[in-house]
Amino acid sequence: QVQLVESGGGLVQAGRSLTLSCAASGSIWSIKDMNWYRQAPGKQRELVAVIDSDGGTDYADSVKGRFAISRDNSKNMVYLQMDSLKPEDTAVYYCNADVAPNSDYRFHNYWGQGTQVTVTS
What we know:
- The chain has 121 residues and is an all-beta fold.
- It is built from no helices and eleven strands.
- It has strands spanning 2-7, 10-13, 18-26, 30-39, 46-51, 57-59, 67-72, 77-82, 91-100, 108-111, 115-120.
- Strands 2, 4, 5, 6, 9, 10 and 11 form a seven-stranded mixed sheet that branches. Strands 1-3-8-7 form a four-stranded antiparallel sheet, with no helix packed on it.
């Protein structure tokens, strides 16, 4: 079994920064893409940032230039550095990853439980 656990959420004023972390643990052989999603109240969950196993990244237009995703493959961790936060960034942020639990390289998609980020104006 694979677990993803996010941390680092909280309450912050607009314009400030916050860094989210996500630790993957359990039966892990390989991890492909590691992603951050978010879901604001009354809205659909949306993809915020993606990082592949080689470090290639992609971002939602709404966060480009403000957010940076990174990963530490040796620790099975992914991070989301969020700068210049806006009230519209308020949401529950979820970590997501494609993980192969063993050497058969059959990847499964896993989610964390989410961490709340609240940005006040």
